[in-house]
Amino acid sequence: MPGGPSEAPPPGGREAAEVERAIAPRVLLRPIGNPLPLGLLGLTAATLSMGALDLGWVPASEQHQIALVLIAFAFRSQATATVFGFLARAAVVASGVGVQAAAWFTTGLILLTTPPGREDQALSFFLLVAAGALLSAVFVAVQAKVIPALVMAGTVARFALTGLAERFGSTTWAHVSGWEGIALACLALYTAVTVDLESSKRKPVRPLLRQGHGLRAVTGDSYAQIAGVEHEAGVREEL
Fold first, then answer.
1. Is the confidence at residue 135, as pLDDT, over 60?
2. Which whole-number Å values give the CA distances from 80 to 12, 107, 153, in the listed order?
3. SS3 call for 145
4. Checking phi first, is residue 117 left (phi over 0); if not, alpha (psi -120 to 50) or beta?
5. Which 3 state secondary structure label does DSSP give 87?
6. Which of these, 165, 138, 135, lies nearest to 53 by C-alpha position?
7. Do 108 and 71 touch, CB atoms closer than 8 A?
8. What distance in Å separates the CA atoms of residue 70 and residue 51, rounded to the nearest whole number?
9. Among positive and negative, which fits the CA dihedral 219, 221, 222, 225?
10. Which residue among 3, 76, 100, 127 is least crowded, i.e. fewest CB within 10 A of its CB?
11. How far apart are CA 164 and CA 54, in angstroms?
């Protein structure tokens, strides 16, 4: 009607784009330190301590002290690495380290509450289950970082061999488990040092055998780091 209230014209193309940008959801990413070396050092301490017990370098009478190492150092280090691993969007590594943390904590509690030198069938069964639980992380991690995946594969073998030693009560199985644990500690320590150097220099410095998205994580530009972020857990509507 003439003289009546007139409707505002719809915004033009430029104005519509500005409105869309103003109401568009935003995802905020916060840089954090790489938590993987902390988890690897926790693994190093745990498997080295257990290896010393298996090989008789530490007397069986000090089993409870080894249990405290697993609970106070290894579990806490790996649990912290797990939390920050999820915050760093590294779900596969965080899941694998989290399983290890829970396994060392459980092992420590059982060793702390059983007489020194006695085999435990429940611990044997649990460690075999924990070894199986880690396999999925190994299969996925090898597609990005081969050396860290080998560390997880070594942890699978470590849990399985320790479980067999507890099951059969054999000195041979205990020694095999112990030496495998020593080798795993060396590999975990090498990987921790390599990742630390990579983080400090912000480029690959020693072989981790990165491939696929694991290689793009250290060589790609900022756009490569956030590609597909809208489909990640915490951003998408469903897990």
1. yes
2. 51, 18, 21
3. strand
4. left
5. helix
6. 165
7. yes
8. 12
9. negative
10. 3
11. 12
- The C-alpha atoms of residue 78 and residue 84 are separated, in whole angstroms, by 10
The amino acid at 126: F
Q: How buried is residue 2: exposed, middle or buried, by Cβ count under 10 Å (0-12/13-18/19+)? A: exposed
Integer Cα distance of 169 and 177 in angstroms: 12
User: For the segment 159-178, what is each residue's pLDDT rounded down to a tens digit?
Assistant: 999 999 999 888 899 999 99
What is the C-alpha separation between 39 and 107, in angstroms, rounded? 17
Bridge partners of 210, per DSSP, are 145
pTM recorded for the entire structure: 0.80
Residue 187 backbone zone (phi > 0: left; psi -120 to 50: alpha; other: beta): alpha
* Closest among 83, 98, 162 to 126, alpha carbons compared: 162
Helices (H), the chain: 13-23, 36-54, 63-69, 76-87, 91-113, 121-141, 146-168, 171-201, 213-219, 222-226
Domains assigned to the chain: 36-189 (1.25.40)
Angle at 63 between CA 62 and CA 67, to 5 degrees: 120
The residue behind tokens 């912290």 is: 80
Give dist(CA 228, CA 217) in Å, integer: 13
